[in-house]
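Figure caption, in words: inputs first, then the predicted bound structure.
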Amino acid sequence: MSLVNSHLKQEILDCCRRSVQYGLNFNTQGNISVRVPATGLIAITPASMDYDQMTADDIVVLDGDGRRVEGERKPSSETDVHLVVYRRRPDVNAIVHTEPVYSNVFGVLGQPVEAVLINMVTYSRGPVPVMPFMPSNSTEFGEAMVKVLGTCNAVIWGNHGLMTVGADLTSAFRCNVAVETAARVQHAALCLGKPHVLDYAELNLVSAP
Ligand SMILES: [Zn+2]
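Bound structure (zinc ion present):
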């Protein structure tokens, strides 16, 4: 019997496959994890596996310190980054890292994805900042990145990809889709003119009860 609910591993796998269908990842790019609040255990995708080859049994389970407690595979090479996020953001129970084209365009330019669409209030909580390029497989990267992330739910890793977080996997995944969609819109709008970016007053208007 698995240490985590068997549905959870399947949900992670389904999100991985959807990330490819939606054009958020190609080949073995990206990684996803979920923390189980009751136990503190973390289920995470394995390193360097094609998503169409991956099964739910390939998902690795770690304790809160990153020790593998279930699964045969090596966990994602960015596991240390996930661990830092869970340590620093108790409100976060799911992390989705992808490498989508339009978010990466703005990451390469070092420009945030601005609050160009109202659904960013719900998902990213405003503009999406860019973390300057650093190799991403270390605790040091994670600590520097959570400073850039702050209380947002999304951050772009310069010259690499996008990471979104949420209270659960559904919200973290939807945030990933929302940010990449906003990046596409921002890119197209910049090609045609000067985009109207929602300011704080407008964002508060949308988020007001
Ligand atoms: Zn990556």
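Residues 94 and 168 are 5 Å apart (CA to CA).
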